[in-house]
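Before relying on records like the one below, remember that each one covers exactly one chain. Contacts with other chains, cofactors or solvent are not represented anywhere in the record.
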Amino acid sequence: MSSGLVLWAYRDAGEASRGPRLGLAIPGAYGNAVQRNRLKRLLREVFRLNKTELPRGVDLIFSSRSLIPKIRYQTLEPIVKSLWQKAKLLP
């Protein structure tokens, strides 16, 4: 867990032919709908721009435990990459 974000990663050796997939589980307790949707948009964008660095056949699920105030892409990308490194998904 880093800055309120939680990552679950699942590798399926049998599905190594497909690319990485993203799942988002942002609870209703995370602010209002605008804040939840903004976080989801930013997480999707970080994933879209960096998915080539991830191994094939991996499923990622992000959730948030606490409100991250005024989150920006430049703030979120290093947090996500550090979670990927902790999960040993990046070299």
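Residues 5 and 66 are 8 Å apart (CA to CA).
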